[in-house]
Amino acid sequence: MTRSDTGRPRHPGGPNAGRPGFAWALPATLFFALFAILPLIGVAVMSFTSWSGLGNPAFNGLDNWVKLAGDKVMMQSLWLSALLTLLGVAIQTPLSILLGTWAAGHQKNRAILSAIYFVPLLLSSAAVSVLWRALLDPNFGLPGQFSSFFGGDGNVLGTQAGAIAVLTFVGAWQFTPLHTLLYQGAARSVPPVLYQAADIDGAGTVRKFFSITLPQLRNTIVTSVILMVVGGLTTFDTVLILTKGGPGTDTTITAFYMYRKAFQSFDFGVASAIALVLVIIATTISLVLVRVTGYDKMHSVQEGI
Question: For the chain, which residues score pLDDT lower than 70?
């Protein structure tokens, strides 16, 4: 390694020297194309056909899209999906940032408490939903034991507000540990010299959090929010097990409505169109977040280089 005229290290072979070639990414690329791109193309083609699951699909042009445009349940499902996603981001983001920053420290019993807190992350969404379905049973669950707290008949899932609150809570209970883990790793990578300089200046804990820790977590916040948005828009099993889209259609989010159209109404053409709508919305939101936050222009800088 030589040095340039500016005194900076110069690596022989240019900036790409030592990096693996495209052949290393070929297996992953083929896997992604086979199990993601090709099925997506198939769904896009299917959205312009009429198919009940038997026989051959029949091309019907834009009929499926016209049906969706005038479908009130579809419009309501998009609103409900957006609402649950926004509630998830608003609740999980501050919680996971605070817990992740705390878990990155060296407090007494921190490792034990963190391990217990991360247990929900090890469970499947179906298992978590079954668990909370049993706990919230109005006759044999917590509402039956603490009727004064839950009030009425104890059927928390019997109203739209109650069902949405439960879905938001269960989602946060399961997935906040994942985002906490992201913030824990990011908080530990903050250079200690920044905090040492702040101590010399007399900055307190709160000032250091807002002036040092939070700005250093910017990249992680963008990544975490994108994961929350995509996950929130594609949530399905939690709604299927906890509320079945009810009461009525009050919690019929878009992913669940797609399931109903495909496997209850056997209208796979419309279901494919709904799936494509979800892909377009999730991709658009992700790209907008990346562009607005400048995430695509961010790069890592090693301390001292």
Answer: 1-18, 295-305
